[in-house]
Amino acid sequence: MYVCFCAGVNEAEIQRAISQGTVDVNSLADELGVGTGCGSCREFVQDIVNERQPEPQFYNAAG
Fold first, then answer.
1. Are the C-beta atoms of residues 35 and 45 closer than 8 Å to each other?
2. How far is 11 from 29, CA to CA, in rounded Å?
3. % of the chain beyond a pLDDT of 70
């Protein structure tokens, strides 16, 4: 499914870039051009990035 029509970027390309270490929307814009045209896809791209973030780990300092 295309996420960014302006740059012709699909979700698989975004997922691949994230899996290779691109971790935020601005970096995805630099690498893939996503969100650099009209910008209407940036919120959806952010959602994809958020879904791929690992769950926060909480540690009990008291042991």
1. yes
2. 13
3. 84
